[in-house]
């Protein structure tokens, strides 16, 4: 029995050992075979083309080149693309692009000697239309471009086109939408795929906030891990495309360019796992815990937005980035939080909900230039506006009515209080009451009351029978008194309007006060800085345009009024009296005064500190001694002159009763110091040296002379004249030269006299 048992054990044990050995050997062989298959060589190539200039009549793009770099970087970091297989083509001609594609073909052919599979990705960011790619003034037709891609030596050929009307290429040839192209090493996938940023009839848009196009930004965010819907640590092209489609459509639905729908045309055949990027291949990574919930904006240490996504709670998410410092901002309904994280090589950082800290809106974000609307947006980083946007999208609207309606939580809807309403958190909707409405945080909507509206920041309207007050507002304030403390953009209509900081739109009232204002229309307008003031009295430290009876400004560009005063620096002034310390523009008025003028004033009296102001004493061919005053500039001056004739035969010792006075204008041929001058004068002439009941004749004189600067401020002048005298209201013509050379002209009822003359003079002053 013992021998039988031993034989039986041998019969069972030995075959069992052999069976186990065979199984182990098969497993090892299978693993080795699998490992050998897994080590199959895959060569991936990228040609990235950027073209900001789309030819005449098309706007020059700003971010085509940065889009191309962003797309290449994510595939280099996470898609297994080697640096030597990357080709950048910037602003090419059609011939240059053909040349680069031909060169790529040669490189792929050389790589085939090493075995394995070749995959090619062609990325284009720039202008396009229904005809093809717009490369400057040239067009690379869709048909030819697609044919060239189809002819590339790669086993898998992909084109990603971010351009207007790029969907036209997917209509050149039909295709079947199947999973994406970046296959893993066990795949034998072959074929083509075309991914476009828009349909044939749509515009593809870029954003200053993103510093790139909506489509490429969304696609890259998806490739970084936001598109990993399955959570397997890999992003397929179908996942990345679907993420980019949803994000691009959402971001462009409210833009001026309209909704943008990415499209695709794929014809890929084969088996295996098809992968675009592998999150495990990155040098550094960011893992978001299950409890993180909200829209996330991830920026690098330079402030550039590198990814944007919506993360739902309940599922963890992994993202891949290069090592460095990053800030992560999270938006939730009426809530804005931020966290900082440092990513290191060979290390994955984790981020949970508790690591985010609340971020309050900073007052300083509201200060600066005049671009109010572009500054006060979530896109520009305004956390209050982000909170309101979140509340608007995610809040539930409700209406309440109480004697005193008070709400401490974020609110969307209508508050009605018989006596008063109060909201202590973010508010979207309307507040209605008889006496007082109060919004302690930012609100978007309407306040209507009989007595007092109070608000932190209002995007909407305040309407009150008495007083409206807001720290800042965008919209309308309508009441007896309207007041705003901070920088605002809107319209104030009331008896008294005040803005202690800056009002970016219009004030209409009896009295308008503003630190800075775009437009003030009232009886009295006061501003430290104003673009336009229209009122009876306008006063501003700095003003672009003032239109009123009295306009006063330290610095001004244009003043139009009865009296215009610029006590520091002025531009154009049009009025009865214009005064300026330093004038860069033209003064046009009856009286113009400026200490330093860059342009010649035009007026009856122009007193110019750096211009012409001189007095001249002269004697002429009539035996007259005269005094002339010149005011203005060398280019144009006005002259005021009076002269009295010596009594004939008195040897110039006694004056006669004949005299004249007049005004005129002239030019010094644009030069100061010694110069030629041309002048016209009109005189009234009198035969008695008194003003009452004296009939006047007329004297017209054109003078051409030369003034020599003898010493600074002293000059000697000489020249000739042409004279025409008429009787006017007098019975006769009383003027003539002493030498009795003249020609009598005219008629019996209107006598005249013509003669040439001369003069000599001495001048003092600035000339």
Written overview of the protein:
This protein is an alpha/beta fold and 767 residues long. Helices cover 17% and strands 51% of the residues. β39 (697-711) and β40 (714-726) form a beta hairpin. α2 runs parallel beside α6 and α6 (214-226) packs across α7 (237-252). It is elongated and about 125 Å long. It starts with a helix and ends with a strand. Residues 4-39, 171-183 and 361-374 have low confidence and may be disordered.
Distance between the termini: 148 Å
Proportion of beta-strand residues:
over 45%
Q: Would you identify the regions where 5 or more consecutive residues have pLDDT less than 50?
A: 4-39, 171-183, 361-374
Q: Count of helical segments? A: 9
The helix content is 10-25%
Protein structure class: alpha/beta
Mean pLDDT figure? 83
CA-atom Rg in angstroms: 43 Å
Shape: elongated
Largest sheet: 13 strands, parallel
| Extended strand count | 42
Topology:
Elements: H1 2-38, E1 42-51, H2 64-78, E2 86-90, H3 94-111, E3 117-128, E4 132-135, E5 138-141, H4 142-150, E6 156-162, H5 169-172, E7 190-196, E8 206-207, E9 212-213, H6 214-226, E10 234-235, H7 237-252, E11 263-269, E12 277-278, E13 284-288, E14 294-300, E15 305-311, E16 317-321, E17 324-332, E18 335-343, E19 347-351, E20 357-358, H8 372-375, H9 383-394, E21 398-407, E22 411-423, E23 427-433, E24 436-439, E25 443-449, E26 452-464, E27 467-478, E28 481-484, E29 489-493, E30 496-569, E31 572-583, E32 587-597, E33 602-608, E34 612-620, E35 624-632, E36 637-646, E37 655-667, E38 675-686, E39 697-711, E40 714-726, E41 743-746, E42 751-766
Parallel strand pairs: 1-2, 1-3, 3-6, 6-7, 13-19, 21-22, 22-23, 22-24, 23-25, 24-26, 25-26, 26-27, 27-28, 27-29, 28-30, 29-30, 30-31, 31-32, 32-33
Antiparallel strand pairs: 3-4, 4-5, 7-11, 8-9, 10-12, 13-16, 14-15, 14-17, 17-18, 18-20, 34-35, 34-42, 35-36, 36-37, 37-38, 38-39, 39-40, 40-42, 41-42
Helix pairs in contact: 2-6, 6-7
């Amino acid at each position: 029995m013992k021998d039988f048992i031993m034989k039986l054990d041998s019969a069972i044990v030995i075959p069992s050992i052999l069976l186990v050995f065979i199984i182990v050997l098969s497993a090892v062989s299978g693993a080795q075979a699998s490992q050998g298959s897994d080590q199959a060589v895959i060569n991936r190539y990228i040609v990235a083309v950027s073209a900001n200039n789309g030819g005449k009549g098309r706007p020059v793009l700003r971010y085509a080149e940065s889009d191309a770099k962003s797309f290449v970087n994510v595939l280099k970091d996470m898609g297994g693309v080697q640096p030597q297989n990357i080709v950048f083509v910037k602003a090419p001609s059609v011939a240059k692009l053909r040349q680069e594609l031909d060169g790529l073909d040669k490189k792929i052919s050389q790589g085939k000697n090493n075995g394995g599979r070749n995959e090619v990705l062609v990325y284009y960011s720039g202008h396009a239309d229904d005809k093809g790619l717009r490369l400057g003034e040239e067009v690379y037709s869709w048909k030819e471009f697609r044919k060239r891609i189809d002819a590339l030596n790669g086993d898998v050929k992909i084109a990603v086109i971010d351009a207007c009307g790029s969907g036209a290429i997917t209509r050149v040839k039909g295709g079947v939408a199947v999973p994406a192209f970046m296959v893993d090493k066990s795949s034998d996938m072959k074929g083509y795929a075309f991914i476009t940023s828009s349909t044939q009839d749509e515009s593809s848009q870029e954003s200053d906030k993103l510093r790139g196009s909506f489509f490429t930004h969304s696609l890259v965010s998806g490739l970084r891990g936001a598109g990993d819907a399955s959570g397997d640590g890999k992003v397929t092209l179908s996942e990345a495309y679907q993420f980019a489609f949803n994000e691009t459509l959402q971001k462009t639905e409210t833009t001026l360019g309209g909704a943008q729908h990415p499209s695709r045309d794929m014809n890929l055949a084969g088996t295996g796992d098809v992968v675009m990027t592998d999150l495990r291949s990155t040098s550094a990574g960011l893992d978001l815990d299950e409890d993180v919930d909200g829209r996330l904006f991830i920026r690098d240490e330079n402030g550039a937005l590198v990814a944007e996504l919506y993360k739902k709670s309940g599922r963890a998410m992994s993202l891949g980035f290069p090592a460095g410092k990053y800030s992560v901002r999270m938006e939730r309904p009426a809530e804005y939080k931020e966290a900082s994280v440092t990513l290191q090589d060979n290390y994955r950082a984790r981020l949970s909900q508790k690591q985010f800290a609340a971020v309050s809106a900073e007052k300083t974000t509201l200060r600066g230039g005049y671009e109010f609307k572009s500054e006060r947006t979530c896109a520009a980083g305004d956390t209050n506006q982000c909170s309101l946007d979140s509340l608007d999208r995610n809040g539930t609207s409700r209406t309440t009515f109480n004697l005193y309606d008070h709400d401490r939580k974020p609110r969307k809807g209508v508050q009605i209080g018989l006596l008063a309403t109060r909201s202590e958190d973010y508010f979207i909707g309307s507040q209605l009451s008889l006496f007082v409405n109060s919004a302690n945080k930012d609100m978007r909507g309407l306040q209507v009351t009989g007595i007092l509206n109070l608000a932190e920041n209002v995007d909407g309207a305040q309407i009150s029978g008495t007083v409206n007050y807001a720290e800042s507002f965008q919209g309308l304030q309508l009441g007896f008194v309207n007041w705003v403390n901070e920088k605002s953009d809107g319209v104030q209509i009331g008896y008294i309007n005040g803005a202690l900081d800056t009002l970016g739109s219009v004030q209409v009232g009896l009295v308008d006060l503003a630190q800075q204002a775009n437009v003030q229309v009232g009886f009295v307008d006061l501003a430290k800085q104003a673009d336009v003031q229209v009122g009876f009295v306008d006063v501003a430290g700095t003003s672009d345009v003032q239109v009123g009876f009295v306009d006063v400004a330290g610095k001004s560009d244009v003043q139009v009024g009865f009296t215009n005063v610029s006590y520091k620096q002025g531009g154009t002034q049009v009025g009865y009296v214009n005064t300026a310390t330093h004038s860069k523009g033209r003064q046009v008025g009856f009286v113009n005064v400026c200490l330093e003028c860059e342009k010649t004033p035009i007026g009856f009296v122009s007193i110019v500190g750096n211009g012409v102001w001189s007095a001249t004493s002269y004697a002429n061919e009539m035996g007259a001694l005269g005094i002339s005053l010149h005011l203005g500039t060398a280019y144009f001056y006005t002259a005021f002159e009076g002269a009295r004739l010596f009594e004939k035969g008195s040897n110039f010792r006694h004056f006669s009763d004949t005299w004249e006075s007049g005004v005129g204008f002239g030019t010094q041929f644009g030069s100061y110091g010694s110069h030629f001058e041309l002048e016209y004068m009109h005189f009234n002439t009198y035969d008695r040296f008194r003003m009452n009941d004296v009939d006047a004749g007329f004297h017209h004189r054109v003078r051409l002379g030369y003034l020599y600067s003898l010493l600074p401020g002293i000059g000697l002048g000489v020249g000739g004249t042409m004279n025409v005298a008429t009787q006017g209201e007098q019975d006769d013509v009383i003027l003539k030269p002493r030498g009795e050379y003249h020609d009598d002209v005219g008629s019996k009822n209107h006598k005249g006299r013509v003669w040439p003359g001369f003069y000599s003079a001495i001048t003092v002053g600035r000339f």
